[in-house]
Design goal:
Blueprint: H1 2-12, H2 16-28, H3 36-48, H4 52-64, H5 68-80, H6 84-93, H7 101-116
Helix pairs in contact: 1-2, 2-3, 3-4, 4-5, 5-6, 5-7, 6-7
Length: 117
């Protein structure tokens, strides 16, 4: 598949968007066989490089798998970059005590500053 080959080469050169696209390919099995290990590898690479959709998806994955502390950390990082979906994740986690009042307040302030910038 042409897109898969392109994204693979681009990811090999460090393209953040290509890593994210490959995570989707491996999650959905579109153009390649489903592969959770490869999906997470590319999701992590994209998240580390600042891809907000990737970090949000990674947070959701961690939460679904019971690693709430890791999910909250991802959402906090992303919220500070201005990501609204991650801010929503924190809002949903707050009543359950998964995020502290201090961390929530700091993330909210940073989120607003990023949005206003």
């Amino acid at each position: 598949d042409g897109a898969f080959e392109y994204w693979s080469k681009a990811a090999g050169l460090g393209d953040v968007g290509a890593h994210y696209q490959l995570s989707v390919v491996y999650r959905e099995g579109l153009g390649a066989e489903k592969d959770k290990k490869k999906e997470l590898h590319h999701l992590e690479e994209a998240a580390i490089a600042g891809h907000t959709f990737a970090r949000h998806n990674l947070a959701c994955y961690e939460g679904i798998n019971g690693r709430h502390e890791r999910a909250v950390k991802h959402w906090i990082i992303n919220a500070k970059l201005g990501d609204q979906k991650s801010m929503e994740g924190l809002k949903e986690s707050y009543p359950d005590g998964l995020v502290s009042k201090e961390d929530f307040a700091a993330a909210l302030r940073a989120h607003q500053a990023a949005v206003d910038a």
